[in-house]
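A common beginner's mistake is to predict each chain separately and then try to dock the pieces by hand. The better habit, illustrated here, is to supply every component at once so that their relative placement is modeled jointly.
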Amino acid sequence: MKPASIAVITLDGELEIGRKAEIRDTLQMVESATSVLIDFSDVTYADSTTLAELMRFHGEADTRNVSVALLVGHRRFARLLEYAGLSQAFAVFDSRAAALSYLGAPKTT
Amino acid sequence: MIGESELRIVRPAGITVPRQLRHALRAFLDVFAFDADFLDDVLLAVGEVLANSVEHGYDGGSLRNVEMVARSGKNGTLAIEVFDEGTFLERERLPDRGYGLRIVRAIARKVTIETGQGTRVEMLFDAARLQAAR
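With all components supplied together, the output reads:
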């Protein structure tokens, strides 16, 4: 069985229309990854610009059978998903360990 | 107790304007000591409308103006208008771009969109209502 290869993509700061191209460039599939953790821990603002890019990325991951987990640092991100009607669209975690466990990373002590 | 206040800003619709106006709005609202989640939600809704204004605010290379007016009312209510000189971009019909207006409508107590010589979006927010919903 192929071991899990987890790619970590990190975004930070204010994710909005002024950074649209940067968000798209950052949210690119890593060829060798079997799963992806998208780390929003240091994101202080995100809006529908991010959601649109996330949905594009998620669609691509689905077609490649790649699992995706979101790591968030503030409940405002969960509310953003809720308001957009996307609460069930992503696996969202507020703990890195829980997110990695979901993605199949070997447990460490 | 802080009485009724108003913030009015007009800027050319450049790509950095949503961020600038959100920060100005946060500074204006900070004095009212709203609940932090309410403040985040208001900034999110207004940010969505400002982003929409900027996306269709370009006119052959020249920038149209975007105007934001925020008025605090009594009992934790807040009215915010965003006016631009462009045509409202109804993105709900596009499969991956329809979240903005949905988010605004989920947060604001009332949303009014008027189109004609530009687009005016008025949002009414109620701190007590949003806090009770959580």
